[in-house]
Write a structure and sequence with these properties.
Order of helices and strands: EHEHEEEEEH
Distance between the termini: 12 Å
Low-confidence stretches: none
Largest sheet: 5 strands, mixed
Strand order of the largest sheet: 1-2-3-4-5
Strand content: 15-25%
Structural class: alpha/beta
């Protein structure tokens, strides 16, 4: 378990295109690493996409974030707009990406969306059990309490 964990929080405004948002996040990942951060956290919808964006294009952008996490050797927690299929509407998703570029946690925002029955669970950052919650999901009691019961710090 790490004695100390340096976390950078990036407050970013969404741009008009997927490419611009992906590029901004990749740059901030590099800046966070240069500042000595082990983890960088982005807000809900940081990877913002226009309504007509395909799932494949979103998946490619996510892969670019995974490559940036691996290249910089840090954890990335980010929100994005995602769709289950190209015919499906966009929704909020949270990803936790490890320094090896793997996605160690993913969950879809529950608030007012019955399609997603799974609450977010804990994931580890350098041996510390953590949890992240998207916006209004914190008002759902199980979302707020279950990660702590599962050992998140």
């Amino acid at each position: 378990m790490a004695d100390r964990l340096t976390v950078g929080v990036a407050q970013v405004a969404p741009e008009c295109t997927l490419e611009m948002n992906r590029g901004k996040i990749v740059r901030f990942i590099g800046q966070a690493r240069a500042a000595g951060c082990r983890v960088v956290v982005f807000p809900e919808e940081a990877l913002h996409v226009p309504d007509d964006t395909s799932r494949a294009a979103i998946d490619e952008a996510v892969e670019a974030l995974c490559v940036a996490a691996r290249t910089q050797g840090i954890y990335v927690i980010t929100g994005l707009l995602y769709r289950l299929t190209d015919a499906d509407r966009l929704h909020n998703r949270l990803l936790a990406i490890a320094p090896d570029g793997s996605i160690v946690h993913s969950y879809d925002k529950l608030w007012a969306d019955a399609r997603f029955p799974n609450v977010p669970g804990p994931f580890e950052i350098d041996g510390t059990r953590c949890c992240a919650i998207i916006c209004a999901d914190r008002w759902i009691r199980s979302v707020e309490e279950l990660p702590a019961f599962a050992g998140a710090s």
